[in-house]
Specification:
Largest sheet: 9 strands, mixed
Shape: globular
Helix content: 25-40%
Bound molecules: coenzyme A
Strand content: 25-35%
Order of helices and strands: EEHHEEEHEHEEHHEEEHEHEE
Structural class: alpha+beta
Strand order of the largest sheet: 1-2-3-4-5-6-13-7-12
Number of strands: 14
């Protein structure tokens, strides 16, 4: 347990019992950020639906199981006031969630939480964070040595007539994890490993395994990619089209975390008549934004 210099709060390892309170704090923190900046920071519906909240909690429990040493909370006499969840995969450290209660921000709580989480990445060669537009967050990441790459997202209803015929994209399963890990290592230098085990249970998966290229995409419930990696642009493009084909023509779907390193995805989104917007940053340390690759917000 690390006491603050003023000793009115302390930072300690996260426990499973903390997960619900931290999930509520992230809802509160991001709602406050939307209000402060007069914009929605992610195309997902706000407030977070109960099913998305449960998914958040399940993911946090998964990461607490795999990376207990990377998960911390800040607490004062009133209860939990902040949390950070981080993971390391191969030699890459990733920040998955990071929040301090609105009204208590800007007093150094976030600095202590991030410092503790960064300790989990000691010895790592690279770092990745999906960053909001929150100014305090950006200061923290920049101070920690991260480069900030602006990101975009696509959103819209995809008319059926724009969808091309895509060959040899098949449904994936847990038996594809080795294939996906090798794509990950090639594209972002680190396999998702145990996170594939979690994502396979919570998202539909499609896979391409051809002599000319391989790749995979996890889908959002409404269609669109949750995470996509491929060994070349052609394969990545086929996979992205397949995720858009899974959307309903009457319902908006979205693709997020697009860095400028992935113009192929913007080509497809605009060809699919989706809107293009900017939001947030991909924060990288000692690596370039991966491509062809669309990161997941929490597993990157
Ligand atoms: C990001 C967050 C966790 C940081 O926690 P925090 O307790 O506010 O962080 P700290 O007080 O340690 O540091 C904040 C830094 O921003 C600065 N800051 C505070 N308000 C600011 C503002 N309005 N504009 C610019 N900088 C500001 C502080 O001076 C400090 O920088 P310094 O250490 O160089 O002086 C917290 O602000 C938060 O929950 N934000 C909303 C949710 C979010 O966006 N999370 C990040 C997801 S990627």
């Amino acid at each position: 347990m690390v006491a603050s210099p003023h000793e009115d709060y302390w930072v300690r390892p996260m426990q499973v019992d903390d997960v619900s309170a931290i999930e509520r704090l992230t809802r509160e923190g991001f709602h406050d950020l939307d209000v402060r900046t007069h914009r929605a920071h992610w195309p997902a519906p706000t407030p977070r639906s109960e099913s998305r909240s449960e998914l958040w909690r399940e993911r946090a429990r998964h990461l607490l199981g795999t990376d207990r040493a990377g998960c911390f909370v800040a607490e004062d006499e009133s209860g939990l006031i902040g949390g950070a969840i981080s993971l390391r995969r191969d030699l890459t450290w990733i920040l998955s969630s990071y929040v301090v209660r609105p009204g208590l921000q800007g007093r150094g709580v976030g600095r202590q939480l991030l410092q503790a989480a960064l300790g989990h990445g000691s010895g790592c060669l690279r770092g990745l964070i999906s960053a909001s537009e929150d100014q305090p967050a950006l200061r923290r990441y920049h101070t920690a040595g991260f480069a900030l790459h602006p990101t975009m997202f696509l959103r819209g209803k995809v008319p059926r007539e724009v969808l091309p015929v895509v060959d040899r994209v098949r449904e994936g399963s847990a038996s594809d994890i080795d294939l996906m890990d090798s794509v990950d290592r090639r594209v972002r230098d680190a396999a998702h490993g145990v996170d594939h085990g979690w994502m396979v249970r919570h998202h539909r998966l499609v896979v391409v395994d051809r002599s000319t290229g391989s790749g995979y995409a996890y889908l959002e419930d409404d269609g669109g990619a949750h995470l996509l990696g491929a060994t070349n642009r052609r394969t990545a493009s086929d996979l992205l089209w397949e995720t858009l084909a899974a959307s309903s023509p009457d319902q908006e779907c979205s693709i997020g975390h697009l860095s400028a390193a992935n113009p192929w995805a913007i080509d497809i989104g605009l060809a699919a008549r989706m809107e293009l917007h900017t939001t947030g940053y991909l924060a990288t340390r000692d690596m370039r934004p991966p491509a062809p690759y669309l990161p997941s917000g929490h597993f990157l």
